[in-house]
Amino acid sequence: DRSKAQFYRSLSSCVTVDRCVWLQIIGQDVFGSFLKSEFSEENIEFWLACEDYKKTESDLLHCKAEKIYKAFVHSDAAKQINIDFRTRESTAKKIKAPTPTCFDEAQKVIYTLMEKDSYPRFLKSSVYLNLLNELQANSLK
């Protein structure tokens, strides 16, 4: 399949992580599956929820902010993200008067965690290596 081969070519040339580009290149499902295998899928889920939240109409911000906070940021959240206490407290204050940017600080922490920790491991993972092998096999055809 031509689009799949293009996807793999793009994947193999991905060296640096750019916020929007790397998610598009490797695909949310592939990276998400890798994170799930590492029991850290909450990171990509939170990041994507924040991206969606930024597009929310102002009259729905409060409801959506509460939902994201309870799901990912609250200290008792089922999918609690790994952020420091100060960022957690700062985010809790910001959602009391929510704006489209109230999760930006926490989102940046999680993005950096994925960029510096999860993504380099992904590049060494069997998932990624299998994709590269498939790319090589497709390029020989």
From TrEMBL:
Subcellular localization(s) per the UniProt record: Cell membrane; Cytoplasm, Cytosol
Record lineage: Eukaryota, Metazoa, Chordata, Craniata, Vertebrata
SUPFAM superfamilies: Regulator of G-protein signaling, RGS
A molecular-function term among this protein's GO annotations: GTPase activator activity
Any GO BP annotation: negative regulation of signal transduction
Domain RGS stretches: 26-132
Membrane topology: Peripheral membrane protein
Stretches assigned to coiled coil: none
Pfam families: RGS (PF00615)
UniProt name for this protein: Regulator of G-protein signaling 1
Stretch forming the signal peptide: none
GO terms for cellular component: cytosol; plasma membrane
Gene: RGS1
Keywords assigned by UniProt, alphabetized: Cell membrane, Cytoplasm, GTPase activation, Membrane, Signal transduction inhibitor
Organism field: Suricata suricatta (Meerkat)
